[in-house]
Design a protein that fits this description.
CATH class of one domain: Alpha Beta
Largest sheet: 5 strands, mixed
Length: about 500
Amino acid sequence: MRVKHALVGLLAIAALAFSLPSPVPADETLSIESVRQSIESFRKSADHEFAPETASRAEAYLGAAMLAQDQAKPDDAAAALERAAQTLNEATQTSHTFQQQYHELLTIRQSAQESAQALKSEASSFDESALTLLSQADTALSAAVAAMEKGELNETQQQASGAEKLYRQSLDIMIPTMSDMAMRLISKASSAGAKRYAPQTLLAAKDKAGTLRAYADGLSTTVPERPADALHLAARALDLTHEIRALRKQASSHEQLLLQARDFRMQMAKALKLADASDPAGDVAAADLLQAIDDLQAALAKERREHREDVQRLKAEYASELETKLAEQKNEILHAKDEQLSSMKDAFRAKLERETFEKNRQARVAKLFREGEVSILANLDGSLIIRLTGLKFAPNKSKIDPDYYDLLARLKQALDIYADRKVRIEGHTDNQGDVKSNQVLSLKRAEAVRDFLIAAKVDGTRLKALGYGEVRPIASNDFAKGRAMNRRIDVAIDAPAEPKKK
């Protein structure tokens, strides 16, 4: 049985060697597919947990490269692809740095998570406040990872310390329960004959359970590593006892175990290309399997070392080519810069002239009216609102009183100053009365102003009358003064058209 379990460990080592994330290829072999595979491999690895945002940025750059390729922009695609590869390498480095720097924290976390899983599987009841602390610790650890990715080292240290404290507190709650459960399983295994049939596993379970009890009783201040192993070992001792007792009753059990171990070694040998597993009499020594795995790991290390050397060489070549290109483009850039500065000066001069012209027009409009007749609101986009605060209508009427003809005549002069603009005449009411009636009344008043202006020789195609009723108040309708302000005519002069680009 020990041979079989040892070989299971060897298989795990081999599987790990084959599943390590693929490095990003050297610059000369960069392709969308190779970078995509590298990102996917990183996402499936344990490293992704400690640099998720950086990995997402690498994916975003890859997406940009794919888009540029679809748009037939090879230079943009190459640049985005290189950024994706660089960002993925940054994610790998960040992840490794975090795991190295906070190795003790991650060890404590593993112990806490394994303990919680063991208790949820084996215990009928336990103090679930440990799970709350565990969840809080996981949140703090995620915050520490996020801070590390942003380069906020002080925040990383603070969050990591908080996470470690919470993991320890959760273990302090779980360890006494696991110790008691482990001792009960050990007693059960001993009663079943584990001292005879599984003595080594039983002894290991007792040692582990003793470590838990010493910590729970305050005899040790060191948090036991992998405390859940006490439960697992005790349960394994009981299972082995039952299995071995059953096997001892079978005459062929010893041959069966040896053949199973041989088959397992041959499958390993086939995976490592050492032998043909179909040979019924073949066998491979465990030492040869270990040597093959060592050779495989050495080959992987060599391949990655050569890859790093290729990357450095290609970077040096790229730097040389870039220096040459920069020298060639320097004069072009300087010339383009001079032309750009000249264009900017011309554009600024034209903009200044336009702004000066608009300010002069606004000043001319303001001089047309007396205080209290209008409010002039100038917007950043160059549009203008002339609010006719001096124009009043009789209640529920849209007829213009002759007293206001002079005011509207001067409004006509203002619109002549802005003869190049479209104009909206907007009617508004307070909220008294029916909503629909208010909208109709506001439209009729706006149309009355528009009709007056048309009669005064303003081009009717420039004018548009709108009735908003009570939906656009500028003051509270709860007070008479506010309602009076809301009953108004706004003459909105549109923003100037954008100048046509040459």
